[in-house]
């Protein structure tokens, strides 16, 4: 005699009750007919959801997205049809308390004949009369995998950056050192020294990019933004500006920040402005109630491109595009954010939102 999981429930209930993980049984119509105490405890769902049609009720209540519901339904249907004896579905669930959890659900067939029921066995031993679902929390594992993926992406980007941007100053230093050897002219060493300074700066950039903003150590102190911008400009942190380029400090103020990181951020922003604002650019730096801003009078950045250009690897001149990515990391390390917009003169404006003047 063929069993029905609803008509003869004792064995199905005993299966899920004995499991330490969250578990349940679906009947052939995908109604969840039994759940164990662990599932009730973890989800905090009411019986109307726990014993509803699955996944339709869970999706309707907003605990799963439509896409997750479709993936789950397809897996259950394969088990019910006898096409699979082991389906695993990774899902992100919003729990009853509003928190989210990533789980892996293992789906196996519940079969029965006139002699004995079989859970998770070979569907050929009898008709499939239901599905047993066992849920395990894999949130930590998934986060570790995501972190490893992010690390790999950073390493790949850094490899490209180091191989591309370091190659030029290294070649310059080597060339001038060779000339100095051949001519005994020590003046030839000055450009080599400049190239070595550029290499040191690039290595500092690479170290910033290699770390998550949360792990970047900051040593905050009062920093005069106007003085810092002027020093960046005069010392050529970003290269020599054109003779007719102009820096204007507007309303200089002091902010509390890590001086080295803030210098890298402002130096990169000034360098971007000088490079992309066209001939005879005017670069304005200041602090207002929204944060630190660096603006220019160039062509600006189209609104639909602003989000993309802040990403690592985006450059309009064949470089690696590390400049704004460095700024974004430096901002995040302070708890600020980088926003790109339009300056009052119609050019580009970069703003470190959250940097508050101290006086």
CATH superfamily of the largest domain: Histidine kinase-like ATPase, C-terminal domain
Structural domain tally: 3
Q: What is the makeup of the main sheet?
A: 6 strands, antiparallel
Give the overall silhouette. elongated
Distance between the termini: 85 Å
Describe the structure.
Keywords: ATP-binding, Kinase, Membrane, Nucleotide-binding, Transferase, Transmembrane, Transmembrane helix, Two-component regulatory system. The protein is of the alpha+beta class. The chain has three domains: 128 residues, Beta-Lactamase; 68 residues; 137 residues, Histidine kinase-like ATPase, C-terminal domain (Heat Shock Protein 90), CATH 3.30.565.10. It contains twelve helices and 13 strands. The strands form three sheets. Strands 1, 2, 3, 4, 5 and 6 form a six-stranded antiparallel beta sheet that branches. Strands 8-10-11-13-12 form a five-stranded mixed beta sheet.
Task: Summarize the topology.
Layout: H1 10-17, E1 22-27, E2 32-35, H2 37-43, H3 47-50, H4 56-60, H5 66-80, E3 87-94, E4 100-112, E5 117-119, E6 127-137, H6 139-165, H7 167-183, H8 189-210, E7 221-224, H9 225-235, E8 246-250, E9 254-257, H10 259-276, E10 282-288, E11 291-296, H11 306-309, H12 322-333, E12 337-342, E13 348-353
Parallel strand pairs: 8-10
Antiparallel strand pairs: 1-2, 1-6, 3-4, 4-5, 4-6, 7-9, 10-11, 11-13, 12-13
Region (Disordered): 99-122, 340-359
Domain Histidine kinase: 161-352
EC number: 2.7.13.3
